[in-house]
C-alpha cells in the first residue's frame, strides 16, 4: 500500500502457506452459524492450496527486498508448513456447506481495493 518493497528474509522466499482472506473465512463461518452442514466434526476453512510467499507478494504487485532477520518485516520458516501453518483439505466445507472460497487473486484484489479506499486505517500504524 505504501509503494515500497517488502523486507523479507531469504528463507521466507522458500516459504508458503494456505492463504485465505478474512472475508472468505467469515462466509464459511456464517454458513455454519446459520445451520448449514451437519454441524458435527471439523471443517477446515482454508483454500486447500499452497501458495509460495513470492507468488503471494506478486499478487499484491510489490517487490521484495532480501534483508537480515533483524530488519525483516516478514520471516517465515519453510520448515513450519505443517500444524497450524499446514495446507488442509476443505472438501467437507465445500460439500456440506456449498462453500467455495474465491480465488486468491480475487481475494487479494478485493483487499487492495478496500485498503486503497481506507488509507486512514494504515496511517494509524496498522
Report on this structure.
The protein has 126 residues and is mostly helical. It has one domain. The chain has a two-stranded parallel sheet. The chain has a two-stranded antiparallel sheet with strand order 2-3. The longest helix is centred in the last third of the chain and has 14 residues. The mean pLDDT is 91.
Report the sheet-strand fraction: 5-15%
SSE pattern: EEHEHEHHH
> How far apart are the termini?
11 Å
Low-pLDDT stretches? none
Mean pLDDT level = 91
Q: Please, how many domains? A: 1
Discrete helix count: 5
Largest sheet data? 2 strands, parallel
The rough form would be described as globular
Radius of gyration: 17 Å
Q: Structural class of the secondary elements?
A: mainly alpha
Helix content: 25-40%
User: How many strand segments?
Assistant: 4
What's this model, at a glance?
InterPro entries: NAD(P)-bd_dom_sf. With 126 residues, the protein is mainly α.
How would the blueprint of this fold be written?
Elements: E1 6-8, E2 16-17, H1 22-33, E3 51-52, H2 53-60, E4 64-66, H3 91-97, H4 104-117, H5 119-123
Parallel strand pairs: 1-4
Antiparallel strand pairs: 2-3
Structural descriptors:
126 residues, two-stranded parallel sheet, globular, mainly alpha, two-stranded antiparallel ribbon
Amino acid at each position: 500500500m505504501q509503494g515500497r518493497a517488502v523486507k523479507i528474509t531469504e528463507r521466507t522466499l522458500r516459504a508458503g502457506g494456505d492463504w485465505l482472506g478474512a472475508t472468505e473465512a467469515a462466509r464459511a463461518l456464517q454458513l455454519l452459524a446459520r445451520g448449514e452442514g451437519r454441524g458435527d466434526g471439523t471443517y477446515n476453512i482454508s483454500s486447500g492450496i499452497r501458495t509460495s510467499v513470492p507468488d503471494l507478494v506478486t499478487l499484491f504487485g510489490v517487490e521484495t527486498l532480501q534483508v537480515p532477520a533483524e530488519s525483516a518485516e516478514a520471516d517465515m520458516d519453510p520448515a513450519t508448513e505443517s500444524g497450524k501453518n499446514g495446507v488442509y483439505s476443505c472438501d467437507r466445507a465445500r460439500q456440506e456447506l456449498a462453500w467455495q472460497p474465491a480465488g486468491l487473486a480475487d481475494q487479494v484484489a478485493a483487499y487492495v481495493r478496500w485498503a486503497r479506499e481506507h488509507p486512514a486505517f494504515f496511517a494509524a500504524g496498522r
